[in-house]
User: Fold Fe2OG dioxygenase domain-containing protein from Gomphillus americanus.
Amino acid sequence: MQVTTHLPVIDLSSPTDSTSNDLLHAAREFGFLYVRFKALPIDAEDVDSLFDLSRTFFAAPVAEKEKYKIGPEDRGWSAPYDEALDEALENEPRLQYRRVQGSSTTAASSVNFVLAKRLPRFVPTQKPRIMPFAARTSRCSAKGLLPGLIDAAMANSKQIPFEAGGKHFFSSRHAQANGATGSVLRLLYYPSQSLPTDKTSVEPIRCGAHTDFGSVTLLFQRPGQPGLEVISPKGDWLPVMVSPPGTENDAIPPIVVNIGDMLQFWTKGVLRSTKHRVVIPPTKLVNGTSTTSDDAGDGKSKHTSGTPDRYSVAYFCHPAADTLLVGVPSRLIEEQKGKEHQNEAEIVTAGEHLRRKLDKAYGWAKKT
Ligand SMILES: O=C(O)CCC(=O)C(=O)O
Ligand SMILES: [Fe+2]
Assistant:
């Protein structure tokens, strides 16, 4: 069976008004889209080096990684099952749903970097490789990508008044000059898991269903390492191919870009922060028996009798921490019937929203 994708692939080589409208449409319909790499000022070699670095880091002994254990400031290493993302399961007793393999928790080991600031000591020699990548990713996600293009699209249709920020409403709130943000570059590693013959006893979820906390996420994936799924409006889980049709020969797979909670709040739900998860990919992909899938394997990922390893890199883009997540003063937004309308008591800043989500995911509030 051919795995097809329902998400649009948008080429940003030379964006026009119609590109920003396409992007706005995708953000409204799906909350997810692909952006072709060749359009972005990021080198394929930088992406490859970052994945090399990721492999080196995660291969280090646990005792070494423990030295950089993640804390409430959201920087550092998380062990598999440290993070619980599926809030639908939050009523389960804490100890049953944290640190236990299960659908709410993340089976990935991950490490978060502070951009342009303190890099963990385990990568001092990698600084020249990471920093340009992080800086470029940060620039293109905040300016060239969604916030900037959404500004352009909003300006095309229903202009945000000049005094309220005009056509720079979103991008200016992501400018570094406007203060600290929760933006973070995260390397993720889902180790290979062996599959018992009785498949019904296997929990197929590698990362529990969740929405992303920030404004925009950029996700880099590797050929032969599928598993990401997004939920459809009807509630079905749909696979997100690594290399959708037409991109198979690109230097690296297109970047998956998705809307996070903050853009959903800002737009009263006009833009969708869509639930997604990572699953153990179907057996036909794991065993490489499929010849029709884009993800039939490149020989790079480890195919054991179980699941392949999966490495991914996510850049979570956030606006300045003190940004109020209130509806954008645009007719497009104000005409909304308030589907995702927040009442005054619920209005939070970007920093507060991130704090609440992290405290839940890691149980920080209980620990401190
Ligand atoms: O590893 C992935 O592909 C997705 C991870 C993810 O959704 C997240 O960390 O928010
Ligand atoms: Fe996510």
Q: What stands out?
A: DSSP finds twelve helices and twelve strands in the chain.
